[in-house]
Amino acid sequence: MEGQTGAITMAQFDTAHIRPMTISDIDNVMIVEHSAFDVPWSKKAFENELVNNHFASYFVAEFGEKIIGYCGVWVIVDEAHITNLAVLSGYRGKKVGETLLRHVMLYAQAKGSRTISLEVRVGNDIAKGLYRKLGFRSGGIRKNYYSNNGEDALVMWVRL
């Protein structure tokens, strides 16, 4: 993929792949994180998740050698929780997020999870559409969940 520029097309996406995130990925994951969120996680938060949280697993989507997205999940006994899902701007709308989420759902199921939950901003219609497409249903509201603007979070879950 040397010399590859610009966003991927659907045909090109077949060459992208999902793999476990490593500590050495964090600097590139931070680029995705800052591209996706107004209040991004810190580098230290990712380091802590990868090193100290034995419930956590994180995966990256790569196109060539470029990290274009990531997804995190906590698997605790028979339940899983999506911590975050982000795709680099310019690569959105190309099923990168869907591919990551499907991968994480299969991973959680293989680890014994029966359900997966997540929170999403009530105003994030694109994300809610993806989650509904993959079978997630509304489970409640967390009032004033997001610290930067007090927006509510919609809790969603799916049985595996």
TrEMBL record:
Pfam families in alphabetical order: Acetyltransf_1 (PF00583)
Residues annotated as signal peptide: none
InterPro entries associated with the record: AcTrfase_RimI/Ard1 (IPR006464), Acyl_CoA_acyltransferase (IPR016181), GNAT_dom (IPR000182), YpeA/RimI_acetyltransf (IPR050680)
This protein's record includes keyword Transport: no
PROSITE patterns: GNAT
Gene3D superfamilies: 3.40.630.30
UniProt entry tagged with the keyword Aminoacyl-tRNA synthetase: no
GO MF annotation: an example: N-acetyltransferase activity
Residues in N-acetyltransferase domain copies: 16-160
CDD domains assigned: NAT_SF
Entry keywords, A to Z: Acyltransferase, Cytoplasm, Transferase
Family: Belongs to the acetyltransferase family. RimI subfamily.
Entry-linked PANTHER family: ACETYLTRANSFERASE (PTHR43420), ACETYLTRANSFERASE YPEA (PTHR43420:SF44)
Protein name: Ribosomal-protein-alanine N-acetyltransferase
Taxonomy of the source species: Bacteria, Bacillati, Bacillota, Bacilli, Bacillales
